[in-house]
Structure formats: C-alpha cells, structure tokens
Amino acid sequence: MGIQQIRDDMMYLAGQLAHRSAQTQDERAAADFIARRMREYADEVTQERFFAIENYPYLFASYYSEFLVVGILSIWWPLVAFLYGIVVFITYLAEFMGFQVFSRFFPKFESQNVCAHFSAPKTDKVILVTAHYDSGCASPLTLPHVVPWLRFLHLMVLGAMVILSATCLVEGLYPASATAWLIQLRWLCVLFLGSCSLGLFYAAARGEDIRGANSNASGVSALLQLAACFQREPLQNSTVQLIATGSHEVWMSGIRHYLANHPPDKKKTYILNLESVGAGRLHYLQGEGMLHYTSGNKTLINIAERLSPEFGATAARLRALPTEAHVPLLHGYKVMTLMGLDDQGLPPNWNQVTDRVAEVDETAIEHAANFAEKLLRTLDKE
User: What burial letters (b/e) apply to 340-379, b meaning 16+ CB within 10 Å?
Assistant: First the structure.
C-alpha cells in the first residue's frame, strides 16, 4: 500500500498495457490484473461477463439519421412523420439516459466487471464504490477546444429534433400553414441532424486508442487502495462492494449491467464513484448530467463538505461529460462522484493522447483514496 503500489498499478494499467479499450484483449488483461490485486485483500472477488455494443457513436448517429426519414415522410404524410419523429425522439432520450432500446439490436461483444466484497458485523448500509477501468478513444470530439461545447451541441441536436417534429404537426393539422419558411426550417433541421450524424461517424472512424492514465487508471488505483484499507480495518455497519466496471466508454455499459443484474436496495445503498482523480484539483460533485441535471446524495455531499477543509476538496457541478454516476443517478440511487478537475471544470487530458502516466500525480491518487476512506468511515458511523 502507498505511493509505490499506486505507481506499480498505474504502470501496468496505463504503461505496460497500450490501452484498455472496451471489449479488447487489453481490457480483459486489465480486468484479470485488477481481480488478482483485489484477491490480495478480499476473500470474495468475482469477474462477471456481460455483452455491450461496440461503438455508441454509431448508435447515436443512427438515431440522427432517422430524422431524414421523418423529413421524407413529411412530404406526403406530415402527421405520420410527426408521430414517427416523436417515437425516435423519446427512444433517443431513453437511450441517452442509460436505458437500452434500439441498442438491444446492435451487435454486442464481451466485457467484464470485477467486484470485491467486504462483509461487516452489521449490514445497516450497503456501500458501492465504483471506478471504470476501460480507457476511451481520442477523436475530433475530444479535442480540448471541442469538449466544452459538447453539451451545447447536444442541446442543439435535441432542439432540431423537436422543431422538425413540430413543423410536421403544424402542417398536418393546418395544411395551409405549409409555407416556404416552414418547409425550409424543417429541412434545415434535417440537414443539421444529418451533419451531426456524419460527424459522429467520422469521429468514430478517426478514434485512436489511448492509455487512459488519468481516465481512469487513476480511479482504479484509488479503488485498490481502498481495498487494502478495508482489509486492514473493515467497516462495522456497512457491507462494501468495490466494483471496477468495464465498457464504460461504450455508454456506461458496465454499471448498467451491474445495476440491472444486482439491483441494490435504494433505501440503504450509497454509491461513491472514483473517476479521473490523478490530476487536477480534487472535487466532490454536487450534481451532474449533460441533459438532465441530477443532484448528488445530500448525505454524501454533507460529509464531503465537512471533510473538505482537511483534504482541500472543493464542491463542483459537472455538465459537460457523463460519468459512471450518470446511470445510477437517473435511476434514483444515492450517488456522489470524486473527480479531479482543471481550471475549466473538466478532468485533465480527458480522452486525449496526452493522458499518459507521466501526466498523473500518484500523491493525488493517494490523497483521493484517503479522502474516500475517511468519507466512507464517517458514513458508516452515521
């Protein structure tokens, strides 16, 4: 345990392995490594296989492309086009919020979660600590000057979907309203959504596997530090599950699989997410969500606030990117994320080729692990 162990873990996960991209042999090697390390501290460690789609930008691009069909249908049957557009819009929102709809019909490939279980004399609470271990891809959409605009672009996409469908409804109910400007507005929306679809296809095709040192080998290293802490001094009132999830970068598939197959009791379960804690200043997220803002759990936030003077942690809100907490927050679980953020409020080197071991501070990972341990021990006693 300590800085040297963190350095060793980081060197394997983000140094010896060229990448940990979802559903690859290197991701599987990372899962095997994490399981071996977990078994040094926990008697009960499981590796659970699941299957997930390969590339979610293709999925979202397919949704955007469907609005070309809406535009074509509107030429003859505007009300039919409106109904079809609304169905696509609603299913897209469901998909974006972590529910599988049309993604069920996409080809799926194998990934795995790793879970270590720590029992307690009492089980008043259940604590899940999560950290995804797969790495992402650098693409035109993850360039530093593009990332701050992702949320705004997504809101524009949603607006175009709504406006396009609305023009179909207006024309269907009032045929005389089919003026030139209404038709032009509709096809302008179709053109914008088609451009976004092509952009996603292009970005996915130009993706480059990265080492993912900060995102999220750092979170996994902190998770392993917690395993050592809970072996040395178990919690007395809380069962603990340390979960390293796979395929996070294909729309949070690992955590979706875990919650679907092992649904925790929402009343007594708390989830702490460790993500990108190896660079930037340590923050606890009061809320997050690219589309629908969801507040973190008040109990966890209050504890973090009380401990913040000791650890120098700062409160923040994250709207630019989805984290591992995105799905459990939307499902009503008690969740909070610990994350390192830069001056722009973003995790440093997120999905960039510069996300290497040399850019990570092992003392920051140890500091985040210590903060998480103190937070969870305080929660255990309350």
Answer: bbeeeebbbbbbbeebbbebbbbebbbbbbbbbbbbbbbb
The predicted structure's pLDDT at residue 178: 77
Residue 146: C-alpha distances to residues 101, 251, 321, 322, 367 (Å): 29, 19, 12, 15, 30
3-state secondary structure of 296: coil
- Here the tokens at position 32 are 């095997």
**Gap between the Cα atoms of 182 and 202, Å rounded:** 30
| Domain boundary assignment for the chain | 3-54+109-139+209-381, 58-104+144-205
pLDDT at 54: 83
> What is the architecture, at CATH level 2, of domain 3-54+109-139+209-381?
3-Layer(aba) Sandwich (3.40)
CA dist list (Å): 163 to 94, 157, 158, 191: 19, 10, 9, 13
Instruction: Concatenate the DSSP letters of all residues of 41-70 into one string.
Output: T-SEEEEEEEEEES-HHHHHHHHHHHHHHH
What is the mean pLDDT for each group of 10 consecutive residues in the chain (382 residues)? 90 96 96 97 95 88 94 94 96 86 88 95 92 95 92 95 95 86 94 94 89 96 97 94 95 92 93 97 95 93 97 95 92 96 94 96 97 97 90
Packing angle, helices 362-381 and 3-11, rounded to 10: 110
Which three-class secondary structure state does DSSP give residue 381?
helix
Query: How is residue 106 written in tokens?
Result: 């996409």
Q: What is the pTM of this model?
A: 0.94
Q: Are 20 and 166 in contact (CB under 8 A)?
A: no
Closest alpha carbon to 240 in 284, 277, 275, 271? 271
Which residue, 150, 277, 284, is CA-closest to 220?
277
User: Count of CB atoms within 10 A of residue 11's CB?
Assistant: 14
Q: Which residue has the tokens 């973003």?
A: 346
pLDDT for position 1: 59
Distance CA 249, CA 322 (A): 10
Q: Kindly report the number of other CB atoms within 10 A of residue 332's CB atom.
A: 9
